[in-house]
UniProtKB/TrEMBL annotation:
DUF1266 domain mapped to chain residues: 10-185
The species this protein was found in: Salmonella enterica subsp. enterica serovar Senftenberg str. A4-543
Superkingdom of this protein's organism: Bacteria
Protein name, UniProt field: Putative cytoplasmic protein
Amino acid sequence: MYLGVKRFDLESSWGIENRDELLQTISRMTDDGHATQLEWLYRRWFRYAPQEWQEYTDALDEGDRIYARFVADTAVCCGEGGIRSWDYVRMGFLCRMGVLNEWLTEEESLWLQSRIQLRALSYYSGWLQYFSAYYTGRLYWQLRNGDNLPLLRETFARKEFDDAGRRMMNKLIAGKDSFYATLPWRYLPHYPECPDTLQEVSDL
């Protein structure tokens, strides 16, 4: 996808201008990204009986009820991990772009991505669920914090991407050669040790 690209502009899209800002973003958003904004609803959906869920959501304000309906519609395909994979995939992207921009070594990027992989295996049962959660996270991301509640309700109900989202998903599933799920979904026999150069994020 980025063959021939010598540097990727992370400043305009992420506000990241250097190695320190890259590491801070990866460290923060791996566990505190967009998924946390819906985590409280996914957690309750899996723990409440149907009647309890209905009573709980009836007491929410109109905006939160729309998000609760979105969670109820997607919980089975996403699992208890909710939309965490949306954050994990994006942090994996930053790790790769860090190498491209020469802010990270391949060894550093591999270690960071191994920490993300452990979380993914913990929350998801396989590639299909991981992709479903990523897909759902992209839908949420394009409309989060929207104040047009009728539009928010309609778009979540129809579950349609914007133009950029459609292009991205088409690239992911366009053909068998581009399909992501060619690697086994399992823990690695051995995990890399944290490089000395990443001690500031060694608790990731």
